[in-house]
Amino acid sequence: MPLKGSKNNLSSNYSISDVLKTELLNEFERDDSVSSRALQEGINSSDYNKQRFQRNVDLHFDKKKALPQETKWSSLYVGQEVPETALIEKKSSRKRRLSVPSDDEKNAAINSNSENSSAVTKVLKVDGVPVVEGISLTDDVLEKILPRGFTELTPPRGFSQNANAVERVEAATSTHYIPPTNQSNNIPSSLVPTVSSSHGDLENIKEEDVKHFGHLLSSREADLEGDAKREFQSMKLILKVKNGSQITRKRAMRSLTENAAKYGPQLLLKQILPILLEPVLGEQERHLLVKLVGRLIFQLNASIQPYTLELIHVLSPFLIEEDSTVRNEIREILTNLTKIVGFPSMISALRPELDHVDEYVRNLTSRVLAIVANTLGLNQYLPFLKAVVKSRRSWTARHTGIKSIQQLCILLGKGNGSAVLPYLTHVIESIAPAINDEHPQVRIIAASSLAQLAECVEPYGIDAFEPVLESLWNETRRQRGKGLAALLKCIGSLIPLMKFDPRYDEYTNFYTAELAFLVSRQFSAPNEDMRKTVLGIISSLPLSKRILPDYDLKVVKPFFQAFWNRRTASDNEQVARLVVAATSHLATQFDYITIMGYVIHFTKDENEELRRLAVKALYAIVGSKPEESLGMSARQIESLIDGALFAFQEQTIQQQIYLQAFGTVAKALGVRMKPHINSIISSVLYRMKNKLPEVRQQSSDLIAAIAPVIKVCSAHDDTLLEKLVLILYESLGEVYPDVLGSIINALYFCIKSIDTGTLLSMSNPSLNQILPTLTPILKNRHEKVQESSVRLIGLIATQNAETINAKEWMRICFDLLELLKSNKKKIRIAANATFGHISKTIGPQDIIVMLLNNLRVQERQLRVCTAVAMGIVAETCQPFTVLPAIMNEYKTPERNIQNGVLKAMSFMFEYLDGNTTKDYVFAITPLLEDALLDRDLVHRQTAATVVGHIALNCFGMNLGRDYEEVFVHLLNLIMPNVYETSPHVIARVLESLDSLRLILGIGVFMNYVWAGLFHPARKVRAPFWKIYNSAYVQCSDTIVPYYPNVQKMEQENNRFAIEELDLRL
């Protein structure tokens, strides 16, 4: 009940009492918890990748000077040799630290605030116009804000502005930080800039674009001149690249690239780089702008040098993006930038960031330095690295320099250190002093970098690492925690290098035994990084029974006690994957059957995650060495199958790993599974009747996995497979498409495993019953059902097609035509292959007629798939059964049909060999002649492809001399097409010319090229030089005797004759 005298409303009936409300308000006043908004801001600020939005990047392009060409870094980092002037220069050029601003920076900030406030005061004094939330309240603005009826009052006579108001404004300015208000800027929509009618081509502008492209809305290009006009044009093009359609983007991108020198680097980068710093920038927009920056850098060349620092600051944060495509794009751009501006400029730009207080900035700097080293080579980078590592001024500089080597090795990849190997000794000498550094972070990064170096140059380079082995080992015995993990990983990475070199066998045995002892002591370490390190080391050590005689007591059992538990199973996926790899490695190196027995024990655990981990380990162990299972006893085989079957039955979340593991075990055991087949089938059939569709689907998939093993176990008796076929056939009325696809797939493998003789006599169901049942299923739109059905129909057409009526096959062929429209490529491939199988059964005549009629459709994909099907039918039934109908259809004066015929011939001759092709060369030459003389580009393009396939087929059988006249005639028809500008046409024309060069010989072919190489018109020379370059690359030796003979040229005192080139063999 509301209180007496209070107003009744709907909310009062659902409100809490006043007493409770008062108590909650009092409690809220005493509450010191963090608000949800503050928590979210804290989460965003702690996100490593989002720190680039919090950096203060200086992008003032007004005053730019060229970066120095020479940098004497050796004197800037060695503490004993630093001159005082260099220290002053270093201090003045250092970038502002985000967390610890200097006194000068604080004063500058105060001065800037006072300047801003004085500017506001000046506006108030001079113009007398108040400013509210950044908007000057002029008469025009007030007219839009205020409703009608308001009039402007004239000030009374003798009125003067109160000077105290200005003083109050000045007094209100403070040097302290003022938190922003939580109020939204309630700016009327009439004041928001909109696209004016004079800028109709800016229809894609967004609200967030007004910040950077607002100049386009307030100006007109016709009113501007000089630099202002160029800025307007470039800004307009950048907006089109960012927001335009595909065609608009391409045109704008091309215009910006071609006119980059006209606009200049300052104008373009001043507009592009601030946009890349926006947090709201979409992935596609970012990709387009980054792509534009890369092209501009390539076009502007050396003029980009003064802006190296800004480019690095904006682009380097993308090096730690999760998307690998973005990282690769930025690496390529920074590589091109390094090649253009050179090593001194890059180092001068990056040097202030080496000892930055923010680890985020140092991380980016190390990655950019790695790109610089990879681009220009370690021979230039090594002196700089040595100077940085010797620095005594700051440990952060040493850390960043060493980390750049680690990032370089990650960039190159494991086993791809050919660029590092020649300088490996010098690199290790540079890093070696850091192993005993006074700062633990430097020691850790030094050990990690050496480990990455070892993995990068594996299996070479142990000689270079030998000088640091002793110091690494001594540090390993002294360190704990993260330092120990890094050193253990380093030693573990060096052991494969020792194993590869026979001279270091003693080293290998010693360090393997000692490291295994140290690692086993860390099995129970609570630190997550240590656990991952230990598992990685175990997976790579060359363990053996000779090195560790008591391996079971010292390694295997402690390993299973520490890692094979429910905590590990419920841990993240990376740890579980490492445990599986380590277990598989131990089983391979030590006792295979014993370790498998340990794993089998966990397949019957109550915890499902631990059972899943055991199944993954079984899949890895049995799959790595299936032949080792031959030593298992009958009792062990029974335990293995029982464990795998129990884990399969007890799963609550259906996963593919159970099927993969069971299939691998069944394949490895083979005929030894015979005593257990009945129990497995019983379990599977029971699950086939489960209410859950996922369970039925997985059971069907398991039948498909073990069907070949059932055939092996049953020898010549296919009774069990026939029963499975009957059960699966009765399940074809399944409602769920995923389950139906799995049932059809299982039916496919069962029928494939049955002997051909048994298929002919199989009556319940017979293939004559299965095929009509599949016909309506083909109309199902689910991709899995379509693919499985088409594969099964193709199998039936291959195994037992004679017993089925030809009309039924034609009905299926019409349904297969519909499947050629599928978006999934596998379905189209299976449908085309099935056309070939059916045509082999009932003959190609009716199928070719149906396919030729299908060429009249408008959909290009359907016509291409039809042409492929015709090529497959011709390959299956020989070309003479198909070619007459195809060539006769070419008479139809319709482009789609003629293109389809040429496409079918292209696929047909691509599939055939030279022995078959040679019989049809003269027959199809008139058709190709007509196509090569057609006005349609696609006709000539497809005909050139057909000529290329025929020429290559005949060249493979060495039939060039028998058909030389035909190919010379075709060359005469193709050669005029070299002037085509369409990229698709010219590519096919050049491919066919390469094929004709091979079949005719380089001498005859080059007679068509020599005259065009020296034509006065550039557009004529260009294609002929392209042809000549291709011939020179592929036939550089055979072209020598056919160079023009210039000894008869009428030039006195000049001798051009070279007798060696006139030799004829």
Automatic annotation (TrEMBL):
Residues 841-912 form the Phosphatase PP2A regulatory subunit A/Splicing factor 3B subunit 1-like HEAT repeat domain. Residues 108-117 have a biased composition (Low complexity). Keywords: mRNA processing, mRNA splicing, Nucleus, Repeat, Spliceosome. GO terms for biological process: spliceosomal complex assembly. It comes from the Eukaryota. InterPro entries: ARM-like, ARM-type_fold, HEAT_type_2, PP2A/SF3B1-like_HEAT, SF3b_su1-like. HEAT repeats lie at residues 427-465. This is Prp10. It comes from Candida theae.
